[in-house]
Amino acid sequence: MPPGLLAPPPLGKTPLTAQVWLMTPRLLHFLAIILVGLALVPAGAHLFALPNKIAMSQEDYFTAQAVYRGWALFGIVLIAALVATVACAFVLGRRQRPYVLAGLAGLLIAATLAIFFLWTFPANQATANWTVVPENWRELRMQWEFAHAVNAVLTFAAFCAITLSALRDR
Description:
By secondary structure, this protein is mainly alpha-helical. It has one domain (26-64, 71-168): Four Helix Bundle (Hemerythrin (Met), subunit A) (Up-down Bundle). Helices cover 75% and strands 0% of the residues. The chain is built from five helices and no strands.
């Protein structure tokens, strides 16, 4: 196998190169854990707000939704978390358990993005980001809230998987 991220550096390489090679999985794990942890913050906020919001009147609900203006920027964190977990899995390719766990974390983050674009984003579009009240706003509210709840659980599972991957990679 040619030298690279998946194999140790060949003999005769500088100690610095060897140190960088050995640190790459740790740095990627650290970055992936931080990014998935950051993605968990808004997901958890949505999940824990759900019981208080699900029975609100239309006026109260639309007022509460205004709090989330600007949260779309967390999409950057989700994309970065996906890239970091997939990169981590790629680098760990020869280490069975850590590789599987990092890959699982990547799949779970990808699933949260799929759920967002299948259920959350259409609800945002139909309500102009909760500034327009369509006739079916209650159904859209359920769709939006439960999509976020599922994503919170998936993001937590991804956080556990990438953390366990790091702990297994010793």
